[in-house]
Amino acid sequence: MDNLFEKYWLEYDKYEVIKNEQGFILFKCYDNQTCYIRSIYVLPEHRKSKLGSKMADDVFNLCRIRGIKKVFGSVDVALKEAGPLMSFLKYGFELSHCDGQVLWIVKEV
Ligand SMILES: CC(C)(COP(=O)(O)OP(=O)(O)OC[C@H]1O[C@@H](n2cnc3c(N)ncnc32)[C@H](O)[C@@H]1OP(=O)(O)O)[C@@H](O)C(=O)NCCC(=O)NCCS
């Protein structure tokens, strides 16, 4: 992700980024001991090699240090591709609730 873009997310919305050459994860920790993963992306040619799981591990490890209890994610059910939801579920996220066409998922830290 472009460095300016990262600075924007941090300064205006307190979102943090963990990134490497193959992908990134964008997340935000809240005062109420929750974290929200807003976006996760792995380059198509590197998918299904556990890179997404590794980046999620990094967020969960940070959350443990910070005393965060739950991590949320969201998936647009209008997406034709079921892969992202499948990968979240395989990682251990469970369905939380549905808000319009957005499906919320959650995993205890
Ligand atoms: C979602 C995404 C980040 C997953 O990254 P990844 O590196 O491929 O995920 P992992 O390799 O860690 O996979 C974790 C598990 O999900 C499974 N999985 C991954 N992609 C899958 C797919 N398309 N269909 C079914 N299962 C899938 C893996 O097989 C693995 O299961 P296992 O533990 O039983 O082996 C990646 O597919 C992506 O960048 N997609 C486009 C962006 C996007 O849609 N992001 C999510 C919305 S913000």
Tell me what the structure shows.
This protein is an alpha+beta fold and 109 residues long. It has one domain (3-108): Aminopeptidase, CATH 3.40.630. Helix content is 33%, strand content 37%. The chain is built from three helices and six strands; from the N terminus they run αβββαβαββ. It has a six-stranded mixed β-sheet, with helices on both faces. A hairpin with a 3-residue loop joins β1 and β2 (23-29). The model has no long low-confidence stretch (mean pLDDT 94). Coenzyme A (COA) binds next to β3, α2 and α3. Coenzyme A is lined by residues 39-42, 47-53, 83-84, 86-87, 90-91.
Order of strands side by side in the largest beta sheet? 1-2-3-4-6-5
Summarize the amount of helix as a percent range: 25-40%
Under the CATH scheme, the architecture is 3-Layer(aba) Sandwich
SS elements, strand count: 6
The ordered H/E elements are HEEEHEHEE
Bound molecules: coenzyme A
Kindly estimate the percentage of residues that lie in beta strands according to DSSP. 35-45%
State the name of the first-level CATH class.
Alpha Beta
CATH homologous superfamily descriptor = Gcn5-related N-acetyltransferase (GNAT)
Q: Roughly what is the average pLDDT, rounded to an integer?
A: 94
Oligomer: single chain
Number of separate domains: 1
CATH topology annotation? Aminopeptidase
Tally of alpha and pi helices = 3
